[in-house]
Amino acid sequence: QVQLVESGGGLVQPGGSLRLSCTASGSIFSINAMGWYRQAPGKQRELVAAINRGGSTNYADSVKGRFIISRHNGKNTVYLQMNSLKPEDTAVYYCNKHPVLPWDYWGQGTQVTVSS
Known about the structure:
Elements: E1 4-7, E2 10-12, E3 18-24, H1 26-29, E4 33-39, E5 46-51, E6 57-59, E7 67-72, E8 77-82, E9 91-98, E10 110-114
Parallel strand pairs: 2-10
Antiparallel strand pairs: 1-3, 3-8, 4-5, 4-9, 5-6, 7-8, 9-10
């Protein structure tokens, strides 16, 4: 059974930080690179950051230098440290394998709101 549980979102002021966590079922986590995605109101879901099992990472240009993705393979958990947050980072954040296929299951996500 596929499970993806995201947590750690909330309301934060511009310039603030949040750390998101995602616990995935072993069937997803053990064989895949993992990614954090986000979907803002009225926009398509986009890849924010990805990490493979070896720890190599890549980031969307919009978050480079501000966000850090990491994973704990023993805990089937992937993290997203978000620093210097901007209002345009406001979105629902999801984790999933990377790349994700159109029919893949998505979790509930976690809301991040950056506002003063």
